[in-house]
Amino acid sequence: MSAIDTLPIDPQAIVREAESAADRLAAVRAAIGEVIFGQEIVVERALTTVFASGHGLLVGVPGLAKTKLVETMGVVLGLAARRIQFTPDLMPSDILGAEVLEEAPDGRRSFRFIQGPIFAQLLMADEINRASPRTQSALLQAMQEHHVTIAGQPHDLPRPFHVLATQNPLEQEGTYPLPEAQLDRFLMQIDVLYPDLDAERRMLFETTGAQQSEARSVLNAEELMAIQGLVRRMPVGEAVVEAILRLVRSVRPGEAKPEMAARIAWGPGPRASQGLMLAVRARALLEGRLAPSLDDVEALAVPILQHRMAVTFAARADGVTVRDLIIRAVGASL
Prior knowledge:
Residues 262-325 form the ChlI/MoxR AAA lid domain. InterPro entries: ATPase_AAA-3 (IPR011703), CbbQ/NirQ/NorQ/GpvN (IPR050764), ChlI/MoxR_AAA_lid (IPR041628), P-loop_NTPase (IPR027417). The chain is of the alpha/beta class. 45% of the residues lie in helices and 15% in strands. It has helices spanning 11-33, 40-51, 66-76, 92-96, 133-136, 140-145, 180-183, 197-207, 221-233, 238-249, 258-261, 270-286, 294-305, 313-317, 322-333; strands at 56-59, 81-85, 97-103, 109-115, 122-126, 147-150, 153-156, 162-167, 188-191, 264-266, 310-311.
């Protein structure tokens, strides 16, 4: 729990701030919708991730505008964005930076740290699972502690700092599974599916003509951090808190019902509960509500939990998926 969670809550101040933020948030969604077509749920979850101060993992086959979405969000939210294209030969120093030896005119030598592309407010880790696990793990400290350590010296990252990574399905050639410790640092796994017919028809006309829509800035970094602070101060009803606890604990092998426990290899830790608590607040604010509801818990259960648990080999052989278990747990918990 952060210090801001322990501050006294002024309900009237929250109402005023939420009403003031509502128009800005609506403008953010509209601006992204001018560039990204037919992915309303994906956009909602990506924005919820950022407003909840988290990192997002966008999973889908190539060509579904995952990279375009991250680029657009960087412009609309007014963040200094940088992109890393992950490849099998990428090294940790290509991400974090490195110290180089320099010689002064008087002959004295010293080391100087050259920052890597991770020093950004919004980092796009494109096709993150095409790099080796060693290189993927270079992001672990940054995603959790918001600084990196090079040659024993810590270097703070800009504020805010968010990683939006894109990932190709593991069944494709040349991919490496992300380490469980890194998966847990992503607030959400956002599945990007094919667009529906109407969205794809609109996309054909909008993206193949002489002129194309371009992203425009709506917020800046200071306004975004103010919204993130507001999210952390939003009240959460006891029913929602209890539902979050019941849900997360019900998909852990040691606490699930016997028929569920036999199918779960490993389950979500406390970071899942914390993430769900923040995400339901952010989703409520994004939709113009002053407090989250059980509907928010239900809507976010799969993206928050699916990358933090795994089914057993026996369950997989029976055709049972992680998503199936989460949906069953939601039905029993809410």
